[in-house]
Design brief:
The chain has four helices and 15 strands. The N terminus is likely disordered.
Length: about 210
């Protein structure tokens, strides 16, 4: 389900600045993204979606604590991606600088960006013919500080991994729970299955 701003006082297209002001007035539990200049409220995430995002956040923070304490992983970080005012995505997990101010909502640098695909991400973006998840991935790849992008399915074991190298982006699709995710710049080495631990796809044994 995709809920547009239709009957609100701010219906219609918005600039990036107007959208941020709109977000600041909304309750914290609501999740909004700006798509082609139109505010869109995201479908509430499933339990599996939250579990996968939580697993990734935990695995990254454990690795960063050993490898690079100057960075931290955080769910739903507010990031100004510099992709133009018409698009303001909100990643499910991001790696950002560990130093931030009390009350700070947005940062301008993210080193890893991850999405757990939800129903809302299949929404076709007007003028592109592409699903929102594909547009978001392209925006993330264009973010200069970004070193890795993960797109994670929640209804099957599948991870699309993009890693920045000296010669450009290297992409792979991992569909085996035992396949290894290796991100040296974050100190992370884990199996794909660890992202799905505690979900119906990788249930804990009672």
């Amino acid at each position: 389900m995709v809920v547009r701003v239709a009957d609100s006082p701010v219906a219609g297209r918005m600039s990036g600045a107007a959208f941020r002001a709109f977000q600041a007035r909304r309750p914290d539990h609501e999740r909004w993204e700006l798509i082609e200049g139109v505010p869109v409220m995201m479908t509430p995430p499933t339990i599996a979606h939250n579990r996968i995002a939580g697993n990734l956040e935990r695995l990254l923070n454990e690795a960063l604590a050993r490898h690079d304490p100057s960075r931290l992983a955080n769910q739903r970080p507010g990031i100004e991606l510099g992709a133009g005012g018409d698009y303001k995505p909100e990643p499910d997990v991001g790696v950002i600088d560990a130093v931030y101010e009390v009350g700070q909502r947005f940062v301008e640098r993210a080193y890893l960006l991850a999405e757990v695909i939800s129903d809302t991400d299949d929404f076709l973006v007007p003028g592109t013919g592409e699903p929102w998840i594909d547009v978001k991935r392209r925006i993330y790849l264009d973010h200069q500080p970004c070193e890795a992008v993960l797109i994670i399915a929640q209804d099957r074991i599948e991870v699309r991994l993009d890693v920045k190298t000296a010669t450009g982006w290297r992409s792979e699709r991992l569909v085996d729970a035992e396949a290894e995710i290796t991100l040296p710049s974050f100190g992370l080495r884990c199996s794909v299955g660890e992202l799905y631990e505690g979900t119906p796809l990788r249930s804990r044994r009672c």
